[in-house]
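User: Predict the full complex structure for these chains.
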Amino acid sequence: MIDPDTGWRLSPRVSVRPERFGALLYHFGTRQLSFLKDRTLLDLVTALADAPNAVAACDAVGIPDTDRARYLRALETLAASRMIEERAA
Amino acid sequence: MTLMLESTTSGPRPAAPVATKLIDHFERGLDAPICLTWELTYACNLSCVHCLSSSGRRDPRELTTDECKAVIDELERMQVFYVNIGGGEPTVRSDFWELLDYATTHHVGVKFSTNGVKITPEKAALLAANDYVDVQISLDGATAEVNDDIRGPRSYETAMTAMRNLRDAGMKNFKLSVVCTRTNIPQLDEFKAIADEFGAQLRLTRLRPSGRGADVWDELHPTREQQRELYDWLLGHADEVLTGDSFFHLSAYGESLPGLNLCGAGRVVCLIDPIGDVYACPFAIHDDFLAGNVRMPGGFATVWRESELFLQLREPQTGGACSSCAFFDTCKGGCMAAKFFTGLPLDGPDPECVQGYGEELLAARNDPGSAPRPSGDHSHRTSPPRPRTSAPVPIVLRRRDDIEAAPVSACAASPLAGFTPPAA
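Assistant: Here is the predicted structure of the two-chain assembly.
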């Protein structure tokens, strides 16, 4: 599980391309493609860099408490594939 | 063609709260390709017998440096993640390094394929320093004997030198790219060892009957037993070997191979050839798969978004003769280009269908010689031409009937040779 209380950001080596269904992500280091299946998740990923932590980023883009767990799980998947990374404190 | 996305274990991983199938979006096509193949030139120092683009000589209509940069600008606007640059041998273009630099500074990643001829220690250092470049060295035999038979004399040595230079420059994880043939399938473990030696990653792809490959496909494509051997080997090395998703027809053996298992032609990938022609896939250089040209008004984006051919490829495809097969969901009928250039119907089985349906159709063809030929041939015409077949060529030596004596040099000949004085 990712730590929801630390700051995160999109890896600087990742390119994001918005799509009708969400977005595609490409990591130039791992050369892996990943995708975001809805625009809210894209907003969340984009909001990470300016929020003090992952939970605050959820609030910033208006994700209701009931949906928070699955969005945090999505972030976990992205962290595992190095698409997002912890910001140095 | 197959989706030229490199994936090892699982391909794109969804980070998604809602369950939708990404592959459905891909099948309907995207507003811009994820990546595309761009053959920069038809010029090549080699004459590989299986060259998918029949390369050799430069085409005088080749895109200029400025035109290439305009294409890169357009790819940047469309947010294409990266281009697979090939040829021909792309590095023989004098502006190659300039274009490479231009693309990567404009946020278009570059992966290029080379036989290694220009990968000097200096160039290797330059490549190692660029985070947005990946290099693929082509090698089709783990020994000089097997490789040079396909790629030409001393090409093994050239590739090994290039890989040594890349390793010594600190380039990590570049690719060793192998087209799997009847002669090199027994060498899979040796290829892996070579890749490991140079800190490279092994990439195996499928031999297609495209370009000059059409001339040698019958004798070089893997036998049925070898296909099984290859499939087992790929499953055993799923985490370590890239395939460009090129073997999805083998998934009909049972377990799906890693990757998307989808033909991405015109949907998420395409080819731009050296003169700017846009084809659905790099293995289908034929008028039937020509969508337009980047020099047309509207450029590449309009071709990608509006060409009739691409819109048609994004329609739901019917399985035709394959739709009743239990494995259709895994193999999707295989490779369009492989079917096309072996003269098989596009809505039927792949010529290498692992269930054997392709072989039956190949055997039943009335006239195999009438299969479509690739458009355009840029093969070297200089002597000695590369033999297109490894079969012995019968030669008969004899004297010409119309010459009575062997010719001699002018000095050696009598000044009166052949002169018969008129009768007095």
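Chain A is about 35% helix and 25% strand.
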